[in-house]
Amino acid sequence: MSALHEGGPRGQVLVVDDELSMREYLEILLVRDGYAVTSVPTVAAACEVLARDSVDLVISDMKLGPGGSGLDVLRAARARKEPPEVVLITAFGTPSSAVEAMREGAYDYICKPFDNEELRQLVHKALEKRALRQENSTLKERLLPGLGGLMVGSSPRMRALWHLVEKVAPGRSTVLVTGESGTGKELVARAIHLRGQRAAQPFLPFNCGALNEGVLESELFGHMKGSFTGATHERPGLLVSAGEGTVMLDEVGEMPLSTQVKLLRVLQERKVKPVGSAAEIPFHARVIAATNRRLEAEVKAGRFREDLFYRLNVITLELPALRERPDDIAPLATHFLARLAEELGRPGLRFAPETLALMERYAFPGNVRQLQNMVERAATLSDSDLLGPTTLPPTVRGEAEPQARSGEAGEPAMGAGFNLERHLDDSERRHLLAALKQAQGVKTRAAELLGLSFRSFRYRLAKHGLTEELDEPTPRA
């Protein structure tokens, strides 16, 4: 017997009970809440439905007469390629068999006689978990093994990185992901989450450089009602809210020293103390930290705590810059274009060979993110399906950007978390590397390209840790 909610079913529920009155009662209750319900009296009938229909949730009595039990229904459900959640109903005061079933994969159990609202909440949470599991499965298909394009290509550095992701994903150790901006640190963190045991739990990325100290601690650790102006209610922090999922602390190098002290203790004790509270709350989330800074240098400069660095640096995954794996540029660009072609409904989109050749020679200071944006720009603005060199920005074609006339220059973008010194340092480092590449490693020539004296050029290389980048030539007299 089946029934559908007028606005469309909220989920497909299979009820298994050998008592007709209980089947009818549960069906009426669930249909009223908008679920599509199929009810059957035996294990054999339940197996037929599971084999034939798409089922999101099974609610089964533990005792089903001589034809089997709720455990048999559970095992049949768990054997499906996309298993539904299973809730068991028991009439026993000490539901030891139901607890055993939970160990075998049941979502939960409920004792007779049960409260209607209690059952409703249990059904809602079980279906919510299944929806989250399906969403993560979709993300896996989209992100893995390609990590949204990051792992496209076959360079040795990326194959080694993927091997490390597979090794660290099942564990609970803290992971530190390093790499320049745009290399895909969040994608790697998400891949670690999705490949491990926590895939069905939340993945919560958090930018440590986007908020001031007080707000940062409130977001991470939570706060109590009235603990500061505007704290109108109690709020759990991200570390607790993530449950047994993963919290990614992005740009952890931007965290204030005072918060670093508290984070170190939190990671050591696995407990948080919400702002305004005297009590500590345990948390179970895995922590993945990420930074585009060299934390060893930050430690030496006194901007990052050494003890926190070693606490975060249990396992380090270093993402190479795109310029360090030029053989992957063409496969990445082609991958991004194929996705865009599908989204835009233009299956004929393709790169001209000379366009790919220009991209392969470009240094990509913005890394994979810049490449993806460049491909999107080319595909969106081109009237032809064949993307020639003119679809690329002038800098990629080796041309100078047109100079803005007086009064036309736009103001620089300075969003949340902008840091002028870091921006200037990043820009200087990119120009040094680009000049070295254009000068084919001849540092005296690179200095000339930048309008610097050789002494000043050497100083700037040392400042950015690039002195070992290439053998230093003898400067001309």
From TrEMBL:
Residues 151-380 form the Sigma-54 factor interaction domain. GO terms for biological process: phosphorelay signal transduction system; regulation of DNA-templated transcription. The keyword Phosphoprotein applies. Gene3D superfamilies: 1.10.8.60, 3.40.50.2300, Homeodomain-like (1.10.10.60), P-loop containing nucleotide triphosphate hydrolases (3.40.50.300). Residues 12-127 form the Response regulatory domain. InterPro entries: AAA+_ATPase, AAA_lid_NorR, CheY-like_superfamily, Homeodomain-like_sf, HTH_Fis, P-loop_NTPase, Sig_transdc_resp-reg_receiver, Sigma_54_int. Residues 384-414 are annotated as: Disordered. The modification 4-aspartylphosphate is found at D61. SMART domains: AAA, REC. The keyword Phosphoprotein applies. Transmembrane segments: none annotated. Keywords: ATP-binding, Nucleotide-binding, Phosphoprotein, Transcription, Transcription regulation. It comes from the Bacteria. One of its GO terms (molecular function) is ATP binding. This is Pilin regulatory protein PilR. The lineage of its organism: Bacteria, Pseudomonadati, Myxococcota, Myxococcia, Myxococcales.
